[in-house]
Write a structure and sequence with these properties.
Length: 130
């Protein structure tokens, strides 16, 4: 087995774009497009971030309602958010608030179980950075 050790990969036609050949050698995937641009794991009270990447702060808007502020803005408001419950003992319905996402680094998460409730939430933002 071979091993490649590098600190930086640069595309030949576009510096930040690397194509990866998919299974069966029939398609390619842009590696840059497939990376999570931000993620956060919040505590059960919804008041602090336990771990994150490209996330600068959390605002507790009330029970079961959190606003995540990203460090770097997204390129447009068309990015996708994936949200999951990380409180293992209870099955909460995890949803994204109806607030329209913006490029100014903010998205909202929420949890519902017979009313809005705090729980551990993991969230991921996928899309283009500005």
């Amino acid at each position: 087995m071979s091993e490649i050790l590098v600190n930086k990969l640069t595309g030949t036609s576009t510096a930040g774009s690397i194509l990866v050949t998919g299974e069966g050698n029939s398609t390619t995937t842009n590696l840059q497009q497939g990376l999570a641009k931000a993620w956060a794991k919040t505590n059960a009270a919804g008041t602090s971030i336990e771990d994150s990447n490209n996330v600068s702060s959390l605002t507790d808007n009330g029970s079961g309602d959190q606003t995540i502020t990203m460090t770097n803005a997204m390129g447009n408001a068309l990015y996708a958010i994936s949200i999951g419950n990380q409180t293992q003992s209870t099955a909460y319905l995890i949803l994204r608030s109806t607030e329209t996402p913006t490029t100014t680094t903010v998205y909202r998460t929420g949890a519902y179980l017979s009313g809005y409730t705090d729980c551990q939430i993991g969230s991921i933002a996928m899309g283009d950075l500005a």
